[in-house]
């Protein structure tokens, strides 16, 4: 599903809320969550990665469907705290956790994904009771070769380098309150190939087995991170959920030594398909053989295409398909402000464009402060 809203809904949203604006479909959120949940073995916990989109409507919807939450800052922790969830449903990861954030996590009873000895030592100094944490490990092998977001087996700001784990365990054994009871490995990014995900997750479980056998680590939880992909173009196949679920069941059967809980932290998969961004064409400009459509919003609202080269799918509302080439530019005073090179029907000022799959890494990642343009409304649609 590239677009959560049809033409009539897009027109009505634009008229009611003005443009540019973001709209999120509650129905699509429910569909994404329930379809994924349905294929997962019962001992896989789904923790929504709040960074993908912290909109309160999405958080409330996923909470009601039984989600746990993966947070990456005090701001995200506060949003999840407002949901008043039972203990055990919130996780806190991030390579630069400040003391105030760790203290908040401790008070909230949140499970911390420790990224180094500093996290463990700081928590230990604050705690007055036993605190279970997961240890994020940066594998010594390329877990998803060539994936720029995962970053390969080179130096990393994330987690503890695998070869440093034995020394860290020795130091951690001296701590009074903190106990390492889980493993976290961030292993994939926008991966739509179920077989590839099985290979990647298998590699994480093999690493866990090695840490268990060679260093005596035991795990209540093994967190496989996020990275379940969604299509961004009509010719991209969606993740085959049944094969994905079977892959995880197969891996659990192969790793009979591990009898506890697996965690998945999808952000993009759960939130991406729910969102549509609506913006109107302000002007059309031809420049030296290139036809620009200059829009009301650009990378101030959608910066992903600039960061990853992956454009969002776009359609001209009410105009059907077309074959004219356009460079979509935003209103910012930088030539980096581009949303893609697309083929659309002939456009005119005032035409409405809908960008699909913008429910994840959309507005909350944009450069909304730059040039002080008004921040677009975000509309929750039941
Ligand atoms: C620790 C962690 N978990 C989960 C996610 C979510 O990833 P995705 O949206 O690709 O599922 C991220 C993304 O950066 C992450 O850093």
TrEMBL record:
Matches recorded under InterPro entries: Ala_racemase/Decarboxylase_C, De-COase2_N, Orn/DAP/Arg_de-COase, Orn_de-COase, PLP-binding_barrel
Q: Which cofactor does it need?
A: pyridoxal 5'-phosphate
Sections of the chain in a coiled coil: none
* Protein name from the UniProt record: Diaminopimelate decarboxylase
Q: Does the keyword Disulfide bond apply?
A: no
Give the record's keywords alphabetically: Pyridoxal phosphate
Query: What is the top-level taxon of the source organism?
Result: Bacteria
Q: Which residues does the UniProt record annotate as the domain Orn/DAP/Arg decarboxylase 2 N-terminal?
A: 31-271
């Amino acid at each position: 599903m590239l677009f959560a809203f049809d033409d009539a809904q897009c027109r009505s949203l634009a008229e009611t809320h003005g443009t540019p604006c973001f709209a999120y479909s509650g129905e699509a959120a429910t569909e994404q969550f329930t379809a994924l949940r349905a294929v997962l073995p019962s001992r896989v916990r789904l923790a929504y990665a709040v960074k993908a989109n912290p909109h309160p409507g999405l958080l409330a919807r996923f909470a009601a469907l039984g989600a746990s939450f993966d947070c990456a800052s005090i701001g995200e922790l506060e949003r999840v705290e407002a949901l008043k969830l039972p203990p055990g449903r919130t996780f806190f990861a991030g390579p630069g956790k400040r003391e105030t954030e760790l203290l908040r996590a401790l008070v909230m009873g949140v499970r911390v994904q420790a990224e180094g000895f500093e996290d463990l030592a700081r928590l230990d100094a604050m705690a007055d009771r036993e605190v279970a944490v997961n240890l994020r490990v940066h594998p010594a092998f390329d877990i998803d070769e060539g994936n720029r977001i995962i970053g390969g087996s080179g130096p990393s700001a994330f987690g503890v380098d695998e070869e440093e784990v034995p020394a860290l365990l020795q130091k951690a054994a001296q701590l009074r309150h903190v106990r390492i009871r889980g493993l976290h490995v961030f292993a994939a990014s926008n991966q739509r190939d179920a077989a590839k995900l099985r290979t990647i997750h298998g590699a994480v479980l093999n690493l866990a087995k090695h840490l268990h056998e060679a260093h005596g680590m035991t795990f209540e939880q093994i967190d496989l991170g996020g990275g379940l992909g969604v299509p961004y173009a009509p010719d991209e196949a969606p993740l085959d959920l049944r094969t994905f679920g079977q892959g995880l069941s197969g891996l659990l059967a192969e790793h009979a030594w591990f009898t506890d809980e697996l965690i998945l932290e999808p952000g993009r998969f759960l939130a991406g398909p729910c969102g549509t961004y609506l913006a109107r064409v302000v002007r059309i400009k031809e420049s030296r053989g290139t036809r620009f459509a200059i829009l009301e919003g650009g990378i101030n609202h959608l910066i992903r295409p600039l960061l990853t080269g992956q454009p969002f799918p776009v359609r001209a509302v009410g105009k059907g398909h077309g074959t004219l080439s356009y460079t979509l530019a935003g209103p910012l005073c930088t030539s980096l402000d581009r949303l893609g090179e697309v083929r659309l029907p002939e456009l005119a000022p005032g035409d409405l464009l809908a960008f699909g799959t913008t429910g994840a890494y959309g507005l909350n990642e944009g450069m909304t402060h730059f040039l002080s343009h008004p921040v677009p409304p975000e509309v929750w649609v039941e």
